[in-house]
Amino acid sequence: DIYGTLLPGGARHQVVPGFSLGAQTDAEANGAPGILAGGDDTAGADDEDGMMALHLPVKGVVAWQRGSWTQILVDVKLPGVLDEAGLDMWADWNVNGNFADPGERLLANFRVKELGPNQADGLGVHPLGVFVPAHAAAAVPVRVRLSQNGVAAHNGDGGPGEVEDYVIATVAPSPATGTAAHERDGQVWITWDYDP
């Protein structure tokens, strides 16, 4: 339990109807760590549905590519008494068993609202950018927490809300093809073809 999943200090939130990451949420008496962060899926629903990465290789958008930005889509559901909530996110890029290294806290109490289907370019979810460092491991643990006022740490009690754990697969950078240098107006321009 190197990521703080199990009680007494594990990441946890009180389940409140309508306050979740994504459409599904389930409750467990204790955390259920697993190799691919799916241990809790054996008891209840597979409720890790609050975050997904945009992946459109035909348009040059490759999810979780090392050394580049990934656009994630975060789906937030809020109860009627809340206008906004705090979103926190960590990634253990070097897979050393903690979320404490520089650059591993990706979001800190980032304020989010529940979006309707016609908001955020018709997506109805929050499009956010995450930079994947060039040194990122091939399989990276990620933790996302939604709470009323944000949380100070990746573990511990966060009050009402939800915590979701993922293991994301990063991919190597695409090789550049058709690389050429062009001089124009005293400047050198380097161009290349994108080849996913």
Looking at how many chains there are and whether they match, the oligomeric state comes to single chain
Uncertain stretches:
none
What is the CA-atom radius of gyration, in angstroms?
A: 19 Å
The amount of beta strand, in percent, is: 35-45%
Q: Structural class of the secondary elements?
A: mainly beta
The major β-sheet equals:
5 strands, mixed
Shape: globular
Q: What is the helical fraction, as a range of percent?
A: under 10%
Strand order of the largest sheet: 1-10-9-6-7
**What is the H-and-E element order?**
EEEEEEEEEEEE
How many strands appear in the DSSP assignment? 12
Number of DSSP helical runs: 0
Output mean pLDDT: 86
- In angstroms, what separates the terminal alpha carbons? 36 Å
What report would you give on this structure?
This protein has no helices and twelve strands. It is mainly beta and 196 residues long. The strands form four sheets. The chain has a five-stranded mixed beta sheet with strand order 1-10-9-6-7, with no helix packed on it. It starts with 11 loop residues before the first strand and ends with a strand. The relative contact order is 0.23.
